[in-house]
Amino acid sequence: MSSPCFAQPDSPRPASFSPPPPPYACCHEKQITIKIQIDDLTEQDIKYDLTQKGVDIKIGLDIASLSIKKMVTQIILISGDSDFVPATKTARREGVDFILEPMWNPINPNLHEHIDGLMSTCFNPTKPFAPNNYPYIL
After folding, report:
1. Phi–psi pair at 96, nearest 5 degrees
2. 104: closest CA among 68, 133, 75?
3. β-strands 117-120, 74-77: how paired?
4. What kind of fold does domain 55-137 have according to CATH?
5. What are 52-89's pLDDT values in tens digits?
6. Where on the phi/psi map is residue 11: left (φ > 0), alpha (ψ -120 to 50), or beta?
7. Beta strand 117-120 pairing with 136-137
8. Helix (H) or strand (E) holding 77
């Protein structure tokens, strides 16, 4: 007779209950250990998770914090996301020179209103090489 699984909340627990020994595996599951070398990995073995977990808010908090503490005099933000409008406004209110580098991407008009300068330092990939395709500063 096998022992009952206590991983499920509905399982009755005997009066003499003691937790299972480490690694606390459920009796219905088998632990499998496989040792492989890096050379054995294929592209199907690797999954890249592209989800962002609050990156914009963390960058915005850094911008506001550095500005309020007077730790910076200039910030160059490589983005065009309108999520940065509150942080940009805070930085400018604190006297920080705020430059935006959108890398030739369109920017939100609300964000454009709250920056001191617009700069692109890379070539425009949508245009052929020409004199007007050089980096510019407005």
Report:
1. -85, 135
2. 133
3. unpaired
4. Rossmann fold (3.40.50)
5. 778 889 999 999 999 999 999 999 999 878 889 999 99
6. beta
7. antiparallel
8. strand 74-77
Q: Which residue has the tokens 């990939």?
A: 125
Give the domain ranges of the chain.
55-137
Query: What CA–CA distance (Å, rounded) separates 81 from 60?
Result: 11
Q: Write down the residue that tokens 């209103």 correspond to.
A: 113
d(CA 59, CA 52): 12
Alpha helices (H) along 1-138: 55-68, 85-93, 109-112
Q: What is the pLDDT of residues 113-128, one digit of tens each?
A: 999 998 877 777 776 6
Mean pLDDT of the chain: 77
- DSSP 8-state assignment for residue 45: G
